[in-house]
Amino acid sequence: MTTRTHSPLRQAQDTAKARGAKTFSFHEPCINGHSALRYATNGNCTQCIALHNRNRYGKPDHERQLRLTYANGKLAQITQDAATLADARASKDSVREITGRQPSLSLLHKAGLRLLTTYLGNAPAASTVMALFS
Q1: What is the pTM of this model?
Q2: What SS3 class is residue 39?
């Protein structure tokens, strides 16, 4: 029986797995030239995966669709415009400054719904409410 020797990348990956780390650094860049961390589970470059996920649908951030479920169970798809995307980023940054950690989209969604519910509970004029959605 022959002993099998792994590549230096595989050895670094196995070492990271043994330590329980999720990522590890490697001295050589990935095939796309990134010097980013790599995932211990599969050895993939974290920057390549991020780019792949961002480009998966071939749309920029402001054209991605949000899927929201109405109270009656119907699904609505809303396309984000540039202003909405900027508002979301500003909200994330504000929450990150207050809490000291990165907020999830579900947290921002819940907070937004609670604020909207409180606002609508004060019985604003219909024209004021419609201005929120324009």
Answers
A1: 0.43
A2: strand
